[in-house]
User: Fold YprB ribonuclease H-like domain-containing protein from Haloplanus rubicundus.
Amino acid sequence: MRYARDDPGDDRIATFDIETTATDPADGELVSVGVGIHDRADPLTDATYETFHREDGEASLVDRAMTHLAAADADTLVTYNGVEFDLPFVEGRLDRLDADVDLPAIASQPGHLDLFLDRKRRADETGEKWPSLEACLESYGHAPPQTVWRGAPLTNGRFGEELGPAYLRTLGTETGARFRASLAEVVDHYLIGDLEATLALYYADLGESVEGAYLGTERRFD
Assistant:
């Protein structure tokens, strides 16, 4: 689904995304958080991405990622379903852990633009299915990046059921460190692909055509 937006003229754009073992913070855990930063004067291929993975607790993971996001000093934060999923999940996990981690001001309105909310509203009005990030990209002619793990495309469902739990099982063991590093490579590709896809969708909504390092690519992992 396309959604035309007026250009706010922001120069520095941030995005973030989370990877979890379930969609409900009562049932799942945070595995990784990714943060992307792009200066609009540069090609999208020059965007920088940082991924943060569980090393000890979830609160530490959130703190590291949010500190990086705050330090980026971006003009706006764009997400895809960040308002109704990513942020509530993060806050839900912090509440359950009774952990106090401050989220940066840009994560709240008016600094945060969720590219999904307007599309969800339009879909509800027209009786359409809520569009995925991938479907929105394809509506603009962009091919979403694809991560293939163990012979099949990695999806949110497979991440929550297979990859995320596999990564968490390596924590706290010396023998798991090597396996954890190989799994982190898979998570990195999947997570950064989503971050770049979100930035590309933001620019497409503004009427800009961009080329990315991950869009239209596929990487395979055993």
Q: What stands out?
A: The first strand starts at residue 12 and ends at 20. The chain has a mean pLDDT of 96.
